[in-house]
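Re: weekly structure request thread

Next one in the queue (110 aa):
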Amino acid sequence: MSHASKTVTLALSALLLMGLAGCDRAEQKADSTAQTAESKAREVGRIAAEEARKALRSTGEAVNRGIDSAQDTTKRWLDDADRAAEERAQRREQEAPRDKPDAGGKALSI
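Done, posted below.
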């Protein structure tokens, strides 16, 4: 082999090695970028899951407050209805004639 041929072969070999080294470096950089992206994606997923849990918790608490309010309102209505029924019963009792005989007994007249 001539000296020029050896020089060209050496130059091409050097370029090939530099190209391979560049490819290896690019592959390492790609792996590093992929790992960083995967880590960030996991973090975003964790944050999204936490936000979803917060939203569900908040919604559940709001639903519970609504249910509690409805139960309180229903209890007041039922208490009001019971009081009204008692008042009606007392009025009927007060308005009923006192001199009527009991169903099982006879009226006494003096």
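The two ends are 156 Å apart (CA to CA). The mean pLDDT is 85.
Next request, please.
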